[in-house]
Amino acid sequence: MFQTFDDLSDPSCGAPHAALLRAELSRRGLDGFLIPRADAHQSEYVPPHDCRLQWLTGFTGSAGVAAVLGDAAAIFVDGRYTIQVREQVDLDIFPARHLIDEPVTDWLAERLQPGHKLGVDAMLHTVREVRRLKEICAQAGAELVTLDDNPIDSIWEDRPEPPVGQVSLYPVELAGKAARDKIAQIQSALADKKADACVLTQPDSIAWLFNIRGSDVSHTPLPLSFATVPAQGKPSLYIDGRKLSNSVRDALADLSELVEPEDFKNGLSALGMAGANVMLDPGLAGIGIAEAITAAGGALVEAQDPVLLPKAIKNEVELNGARVAHIRDAAVFVNFLCWFDEEAPKGELDEIGATEKLEEFRRATGVLKDISFDTISGAGPNGAICHYRVSRASNLKIPVGKPFLIDSGAQYEDGTTDITRTLAVGETSADMKRHFTLVLKGHIAISSARFPKGTTGAQLDTLARIALWNAGFDYDHGTGHGVGAYLGVHEGPQRIAKTGTVPLKPGMILSNEPGYYPAGEYGIRLENLEVVTEAADIPGGERPMLGFETLTLVPMDLRLVELSLLTPAERDWLNRYHEKVREEIGPLVGAKERIWLERATKAV
């Protein structure tokens, strides 16, 4: 299987590992150190080699940071992980704080003393982060020290080796644009910014630019690497040569200079010594990259990674691939739902069993490359943990009488999928149906939205929450994230969230996933992927509008819908959606599944 169920967390590691780290800091003359959930690429998912926060604290979530001083420590996580952190971390050693409401900078400002030296790994903290940390240290009379090596690496005895996953070429028939043309597009953008070169630190940006895919990171086809792109001439691709077959090496050598990662800093210094104006993204590039350029005499041009927007705005080939992948995956999911409705009411099915069966159905397509993330298979109280990962230790039987939440996705070569459904198992209560329907109303509001060009995700986010707010509820995650084209299931810069400040543009793919999570009881989330499109003209309207095309074609569970809470327009949306699901997916499944689908998509 692509998914494993080992329990990766060990809260008991906190005390001994914190003691080891404090001893190492003392040896180096440091009074404190920050440990982010990050690698040198600021990736969301990092290889075991870079899971330093997990090694130190036991926390396995995808976002967080720990702070260790001589006499105090804490771990900071966002609202997705407030339950998980209490289960995975020794809170006597690392008290938990909310990353947004109680940021690490506030915690440091209260505890740093004059003369303190606070260390950070120069490759794990961005230019923007370090600026803020320097301000905090200066206000306290302390000093921020950027380190070329990480103290944890000196004391982590069984640290895994760096990954050397093989790289493959991504065919232009799926990419829709040749790598050479993409490079020319980025070089044109550099000229507009009066930059002599740019530094790319995001593996998905590099994968998109060179039309390659890799296997260094679980569930995401990324080759960990760096690149520099000059305004003229060949880019340099800093990648471990062990990842390249002869044919891949030859193809990449035709596009770029291939250099080992150990020489990345030397390449940056060479740009600096040439007096180059070098573009980098201050929110993504480690401070060590910026310092290598400026220390050698170069100048920085701070701007968004120039690949992010072109990568986010899918071309027609990529969009057609996504449509095909979603239809394939919808047929898989209908097969799973039909099976689930037979098995779950028996009371013996557990979270792992459901996860394994869904992956089995996806594997049966014959074209599954991987799952796009560890399936969130949440029964009862585990469903209330937004980013729950089932292990053999946490595995629960799926109870009859409560909703079951399953959030999963697939990596197919023609597209990346991500879908969440909340399913009834037996009779559910009036409150459960009410909560489900409030979430459904928010989902429909996003899917139905029409909005003028220039609208940001932050402006749309309220639409998904208003029905919940009116009932006194909310959820502590964004409503939607960007999705790549056989790349990361979480992709920027587009998002539907309070922090989504990037205008949405046609061709962007986003998730639509409001939720509600009564702690200790169950979770509800409904997620489809949507493409931003040019919307049809509105009669009498003055401005051209954008809207969404729904990619995901899987039924919503009508057994959890309280119809009296839906407006006529919302009922129409639900019926139209289910009609499309029935027409598109019905011919792709077996006779038994087609009968199930007819019942699941009946008009209401």
Automatic annotation (TrEMBL):
<comment type="similarity">
    <text>Belongs to the peptidase M24B family.</text>
</comment>
<protein>
    <submittedName>
        <fullName>Xaa-Pro aminopeptidase</fullName>
    </submittedName>
</protein>
<keyword id="KW-0645">Protease</keyword>
<dbReference type="InterPro" id="IPR036005">
    <property type="entry name" value="Creatinase/aminopeptidase-like"/>
</dbReference>
<dbReference type="GO" id="GO:0070006">
    <property type="term" value="F:metalloaminopeptidase activity"/>
</dbReference>
<dbReference type="InterPro" id="IPR029149">
    <property type="entry name" value="Creatin/AminoP/Spt16_N"/>
</dbReference>
<keyword id="KW-0479">Metal-binding</keyword>
<keyword id="KW-0031">Aminopeptidase</keyword>
<dbReference type="GO" id="GO:0005737">
    <property type="term" value="C:cytoplasm"/>
</dbReference>
<feature type="domain" description="Peptidase M24">
    <location>
        <begin position="323"/>
        <end position="534"/>
    </location>
</feature>
<dbReference type="Pfam" id="PF16189">
    <property type="entry name" value="Creatinase_N_2"/>
</dbReference>
<dbReference type="Pfam" id="PF16188">
    <property type="entry name" value="Peptidase_M24_C"/>
</dbReference>
<dbReference type="GO" id="GO:0046872">
    <property type="term" value="F:metal ion binding"/>
</dbReference>
<dbReference type="InterPro" id="IPR000994">
    <property type="entry name" value="Pept_M24"/>
</dbReference>
<keyword id="KW-0378">Hydrolase</keyword>
<feature type="domain" description="Creatinase N-terminal">
    <location>
        <begin position="21"/>
        <end position="148"/>
    </location>
</feature>
<dbReference type="InterPro" id="IPR050422">
    <property type="entry name" value="X-Pro_aminopeptidase_P"/>
</dbReference>
<dbReference type="Pfam" id="PF01321">
    <property type="entry name" value="Creatinase_N"/>
</dbReference>
<dbReference type="InterPro" id="IPR033740">
    <property type="entry name" value="Pept_M24B"/>
</dbReference>
<dbReference type="InterPro" id="IPR000587">
    <property type="entry name" value="Creatinase_N"/>
</dbReference>
<dbReference type="InterPro" id="IPR032416">
    <property type="entry name" value="Peptidase_M24_C"/>
</dbReference>
<dbReference type="Pfam" id="PF00557">
    <property type="entry name" value="Peptidase_M24"/>
</dbReference>
<feature type="domain" description="Peptidase M24 C-terminal">
    <location>
        <begin position="544"/>
        <end position="603"/>
    </location>
</feature>
